[in-house]
Write a structure and sequence with these properties.
By secondary structure, the protein is α/β, with parallel strands linked by helices. It is built from ten helices and five strands. It has helices at about 15-25, 40-50, 65-75, 90-95, 115-120, 140, 145-155, 160-170, 175-185, 190-200, and strands at about 5-10, 30-35, 50-55, 80-85, 100-105.
Length: about 210
């Protein structure tokens, strides 16, 4: 995959640095601009011509919704990933209706962000709400699983190897192993087979590829 050019827009410098660090570590991204206010977003995008803008909703000067309107009208080809701590459920469809390709809650594992951005750029199978702040308590959430852990568990239940999971979810194999360790601990199991059995017995996954004994 070619290098993906990204502009990061957030009024918190710490968040900008965190996003930059995650994208730099992924290896196939170039951060070409940073904005700390909404008023800076359009000029920076016009100057740098990025593939993606990672955009906060709450910024001085102009909020993220106004930025989305500007980008849709003047830079329609630029994808936008909203990265926000806003927990108002109405904000999610509002952002998507204004042209955002994905809405990511700041509570997610930051190592998932590169995967989201890649899928947004290549318009592959990515559900924009999958990473949003959950509105209700699914069995997986009640079990303490994060969205990224649930996706790994779903893939595990389909019989994928660590390498296959990493390739499908755009993660490193080490990250997959890290997720599996946390999944085992959260579910109180010791291995893959026990994790899959527990997942189906407790309806933590939705694909009936496995019938518990």
């Amino acid at each position: 995959m070619a290098t993906i050019k990204v502009v990061i827009a957030d009024d918190h410098r710490l968040m900008i640095e965190a996003v930059r660090c995650v994208l730099d570590a992924a290896g196939d991204f170039e951060v070409v601009g940073e904005a700390t206010s909404g008023a800076q977003v359009l000029p920076i995008v016009s100057r740098t011509n990025p593939d993606v803008v990672v955009l906060d909703l709450r910024m001085p000067g102009a909020d993220g919704f106004k930025c989305l309107d500007w980008l849709r009208s003047r830079h329609e080809s630029v994808k936008v990933v909203v990265l926000s701590a806003v927990d108002d459920p109405d904000s999610i469809p509002a952002a998507l209706n204004r042209g955002a390709s994905a809405f990511v809650g700041k509570h997610v594992d930051p190592r998932d962000l590169p995967s989201v951005v890649r899928q947004v750029v290549d318009e592959s199978v990515y559900h924009a709400l999958a990473h949003a702040i959950p509105a209700g308590g699914s069995p997986a959430q009640e079990a303490g699983l994060t969205p990224s852990e649930q996706r790994v568990l779903e893939a595990l239940a389909r019989g994928l190897t660590n390498k296959e999971i990493a390739r499908e979810l755009w993660l490193t194999e080490q990250t997959v192993k890290f997720h599996l360790t946390r999944i085992y601990r959260r579910l109180g199991v010791g291995n893959r087979t026990e994790a899959v059995r527990h997942a189906y017995q407790n309806r933590l996954v939705s694909h009936p590829f496995y019938e518990p004994a």
